[in-house]
Amino acid sequence: xxxxxxxxxxxxxxxxxxxxxxxxxxxxxxxxxxxxxxxxxxxxxxxxxxxxxxxxxxxxxxxxxxxxxxxxxxxxxxxxxxxxxxxxxxxxxxxxxxxxxxxxxxxxxxxxxxxxxxxxxxxxxxxxxxxxxxxxxxxxxxxxxxxxxxxxxxxxxxxxxxxxxxxxxxxxxxxxxxxxxxxxxxxxxxxxxxxxxxxxxxxxxxxxxxxxxxxxxxxxxxxxxxxxxxxxxxxxxxxxxxxxxxxxxxxxxxxxxxxxxxxxxxxxxxxxxxxxxxxxxxxxxxxxxxxxxxxxxxxxxxxxxxxxxxxxxxxxxxxxxxxxxxxxxxxxxxxxxxxxxxxxxxxxxxxx
Amino acid sequence: xxxxxxxxxxxxxxxxxxxxxxxxxxxxxxxxxxxxxxxxxxxxxxxxxxxxxxxxxxxxxxxxxxxxxxxxxxxxxxxxxxxxxxxxxxxxxxxxxxxxxxxxxxxxxxxxxxxxxxxxxxxxxxxxxxxxxxxxxxxxxxxxxxxxxxxxxxxxxxxxxxxxxxxxxxxxxxxxxxxxxxxxxxxxxxxxxxxxxxxxxxxxxxxxxxxxxxxxxxxxxxxxxxxxxxxxxxxxxxxxxxxxxxxxxxxxxxxxxxxxxxxxxxxxxxxxxxxxxxxxxxxxxxxxxxxxxxxxxxxxxxxxxxxxxxxxxxxxxxxxxxxxxxx
Lengths: 352, 327
Fold this sequence. Notes:
The structure holds 2 protein chains of 2 kinds. By secondary structure, chain A is an alpha/beta fold. Chain A has helices at about 75-80, 105-110, 120-125, 130-140, 145-160, 180-190, 210-225, 235-240, 260-265, 270-280, 285-290, 320-325, 345-350, and strands at about 5-10, 15, 25, 30-45, 45-60, 65-70, 90-95, 95-100, 115, 195-200, 230-235, 245-250, 255-260, 330-335, 335-340. Chain A is built from 13 helices and 15 strands. By secondary structure, chain B is α/β, with parallel strands linked by helices. The model of chain B has no long low-confidence stretch (mean pLDDT about 90). The chains are: A alpha/beta, B alpha/beta. The interface of A and B includes residues 237, 240, 278, 292 and 298 of A.
């Protein structure tokens, strides 16, 4: 049994982090939920279907990982949960409220409930503000502290939580390293004590040694504060490491979901299998002995996705039926779903 | 065997308002014909700058010292014009962003053979059929038609293929690949890694591959040099360096990646950040972050690069035993 805490919500059991016996308990509360969400953008060349029918649930205290390549719609999905993009159809529920059609004004208080950490902390911090002022901003906007002294104490506390010295409060972003700036981004996200934090590629622009620091920090904060994360990344190994459950996206859809162990050891969708086989491993002997599934061509345009299965134009195992039927997510194992007419079978055929 | 490109005691110092920045602080490496040398390191380690300086492409504000040999020619101390001719004839370049190498308003076919027209003296007509041949070789579908298309009509992966075709147009002895797959998706990265390896085998080109991705290195390199703060901390055959990392930095880097087969415990981290190139420490540059934390000598004396096994060298007073020896 994996030693990490893996919440298995459908069965209502939680495997404790110490590896002891699972205890029966009520499934954790759903913090955020997307139901058949579509986000389409009109462009001069046609309507881009960035997200095209995505349903997911994030429960309190867990990390849901969202992995996919560029154009898969993973970032737009994250933005939809924050209501930073307008859903075309479907619904967005956060903390028990349907916020799909809320006005900008009504959303203002909601902004505190869902925070975001961006890829590039350089771009998300105001270069003219001190670090302390940047972290204090959400406290002021949402009227979370009384007076300057209390605010200063809270800023110090937040800096401490993310492992930064309090004297950094007087510095400006350019005086900090990339890793320190990302810690500031996390402190800002924590300021409003949000129900959900959307982490969009939070380690992608950092050096390897700093990536590990930030991943450890995020996991420690989650344990201590019982935070809920949507962790969006293109880095499969990072998503595997961070998540309790994960979903693989391709061209605006979730094509497979399950626990990281299920997806890593036993991918059921041909795209997931190809993605896994493309990830290089830092072991020359493994790399030499490896058989890669090299996908042909490029991801089709989201303006005009293929009919039937969207992956069929690049799938090494595509069959005539794949052009006829648009496959839905179907259970292949408990809590493990894949959207493929030939789930498992196609993957096995690709490997032999 | 005579190396294709060899640098000896290369230093690059860049003048800044806050003083000289020591981007490369004394580096030796060589790449043999048909082989791949991977230069690996985090940002600011000097891996790109050492290659740019070696090929005469360092910024104008940089002061470069040391010796560089390209095949039989000495590249240091020759005129800029001679260096440009040697580079154009013998070295091809592929950079991270294909659009930095491509002209957006020129058909790709013209761009692919532009250099070949000059360096090999091809006629316009010969150049066009050569362009089709090269585009076909790098896997561009229906190259005969695509030769007249413009860069914006290609995807990121296809643009990088065009740049590779351009780099190989003069049949260079050496290909410099500077993070060529970093901006690409992982399935596209697999295609490009595959393509470069395949072309290298067919054409016998030597490759210097600059990357921060240890996984890519494991798949492509014959030899690897791990750089940190402008110096090489460890270099040798890829199996030796990955299988028995001897420098604490190499070991920590390899352990910092999440391992999907492991149990999900906290990752090994390296505390702190690399030193500023404006104030490199007198001793070992990695010492302030080193998990081994040797002694006062580490802080004050620069450890020499010493051999630990055949062709495998390491710059530390405290080489780490391999797993086998530890047991």
